Amino acid sequence: MTVRRRHVLFVAGFDPKGASYYHGLYQRESARQAALGAWTYEVGPRRRLASGNDAWEVRTIGKAVQPDVSTTVEHLRWDDLVRREWPQGAWQVLVGSVMAYVHALASGRALLKVGQVAPMTLFSLAWPGVCWLAVVGLAFLLAALAWGGMQAVLPGGGAWAWMTAWMAAGVAASVAGAVLAAAWRLERRWNTTWLLRIYRFADRWARARMPWLDERLDSMAKRLQEVLQDPEVDEVLLVGYSVGSMLSVSMVARALAEHAAKQAPLALLTLGHCVPLLGLMPKAGGFRQELAQVAQAPQVFWVDISSPTDWGSFALADPVALCLQQPGLNPRAMVSPRFHTLFDAATYAVLKKDKRRMHLQYLMSGEVPGAYDFFDLTAGPCRLKERVWKK
Hints:
alpha/beta; nine-stranded mixed sheet; 55% helix
């Protein structure tokens, strides 16, 4: 059945950038995708809604004789909460991430599950901690060598003893500081602190330390209910990107709790999902209940598209099967975007080295036509179910 009118609700990842950034990205990348496909996209200006969310209209025009499609893309705002949960100081990041690692390591069984189904994701989870432990260890080692070297070459004994000790300590501290400063400059390439902030956020969510997040999820669920009741909309598509996949599950469960939303069909599309990051935490019992509600709802058609080359996601790992031990749940479609088919080999080899860029590719155009097309999924003429099975 052709979609003539669609409403997309988009939930971004753990990112302090707001609707302006994602509107610009959609506008720019849809123009690039149009050069490769059967559609052109007219992306309208961003406008603020009464709910506090931002939205823009997309008119999809077929290059052959096909009906136009009108899509409203609504950016569900939570970047203000991300900034609230975005520790600025290195000390805050350190303490929060250490606590998250402590709680994660307390559940060895969960880590074993992750290692079995997504070994590269487990490597990504461990990478920030291993990286900074190695940096600190190197700083201490070089500082100790500098201390010993200075003690050996400087005069000692008598009146020189205290001066030698102070000079050796100063050199050792300078060496350690230089190592840490160099590592901090390399952080822009490593992106470890972003990951550490995400771990801290998931840990705080699992332990119910963010009441304001619950309030926002309730308002998101209410907005979803309103859109599901619109008789003019042919398809309601909820898109949860990255950490937004976890928020999407929670808001769908809360919307399903209302009678008005129980029978309305909903297409749920998660991109680069990381649901088990929260779902496997020992204290996340409430979230696992919500995950089970969504998995049991026959009116929810859930598709996850995640790439094995995206180490920030649990690619092709069914979040329900991984986090829950409940039979009889609705199946989910777990699909790879096959990013390598969207670029020539040389370009793709460069892209694979930039893990943060690979994680963003779900929302971007490729260089050549391929099976994965974010803009066809969100603004094309086919429903999500038809589009996925067609490919």
